[in-house]
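User: Could you walk me through two proteins back to back? I'd like the raw sequence and the structure tokens for each, with a short line separating them so I can tell where one ends and the next begins.

Assistant: Of course. Protein one, sequence then structure:
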Amino acid sequence: MASLNKVMLIGNVGKDAELRYLANGTPQAKFSLAVNRNFKGADGEWKEETEWFNIVVWAALAERISQNVTKGKQIYVEGRLSTRSWDDDQGVKHYMTEVIANDLKILERREAGQGGGGGGGGGGGDEWGDGAPRAGGRPQQRTGGYNAPRGGGGAASGGGDVDVDDLPFE
């Protein structure tokens, strides 16, 4: 039987990414992400509900994003859910569910003069990935390391807003 654990979120960073190194030297970055949902209530009025997610990023990807993922930025996060548990000093069991991210993309425009990679100039944001295979066994198009924004051809080029339809949902 097949199984799938995949999460895709678009939201606003709630606090700057905090980078730390574990005892074995492995980098880890953590930050919170607020995702809003708009809906019509029973009274017919539009309401907004915010769901908060704890995002964890590991290894080289954690180091790459730690300086760029800052409070207020809108980002796309792709990863998997992971729940961990621990007992506190009083013996009470606690649970925390986190999103272990393997791809991130800042969805906001670059400021003038920041340039852009890939020959398109301008650009719709920075994108990072772990280079792991995606659905269907295909490798991610932009493998490992820092991935400069794609130039030309998409809504993200030329400094415009990113269209949700242009996100890398495979």
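----
Protein two, same layout:
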Amino acid sequence: MRAVRKHTDCRWLLLYIERWLKAPAERADGTRVARTVGTPQGGVVSPLLANIFLHHAFDTWMAETCPHVPFERYADDVVVHCRSEAQARFIRDKIVKRLAACRLEAHPDKTKIVYCRDDDRQGEYPNQSFDFLGYTFRPRPSKNRHGKFFVNFSPAVSVKALKAMTASVRRWRIQRRSDKSLVDIARMFRSVLSGWIAYYGRFYPSALYPFFKRLNRRLVRWARQKYKRLGHQRRATHWLRRIARREPGLFPHWRMVAP
């Protein structure tokens, strides 16, 4: 009975997927265009269908053909861990053939072999870094529990993610919100800042320090605009610093980088 129900559920799922693939695309003016292949760019169902397809076309295939090769996949980004360059080239070529058989193509620029250089692996290789899930993985100086420095291949917030965060802060126009109090500004953006810290501050949080220093400078500019008696930058900085000492939790990033 369970097998019959499972088979029936799968058939209904395939019917729904077929309807999604054949559904016409609607333009901004309301007109509909018939489609014969693929899913519309930006469609809400497109990531879901891509994930279902890649689960069978890649995840299951990797588990069956390369059970001892660990990998991570998020959407269409994949990181495969290999023990040697020879194995990496073999697996890469194998994946490219598999994708081609599924009518997919590996990105020519993003598909690359990366050498995870650290104190134990000190060889030279053209590619020694890669981006994944908003992090950049590359050799970085680290310190162990005994205070000794060493080179570790570790993640930190990527340059692309920092640029996106900077663009978001720029859109906030903090320095122009002179009608708001400092508490109001903290309340408006606390959840976003907390989310950035929780995600990007999980590994190598010091990479976020320059970004939060620039955010503090924007708060100083806001103070100078709101309170004319704080016209000088140094005076406004001291004023903001006193508040940070008294209420370090007002802005989430103040516990990491004070004004």
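The radius of gyration is 25 Å.

Let me know if you want the two compared in more detail.
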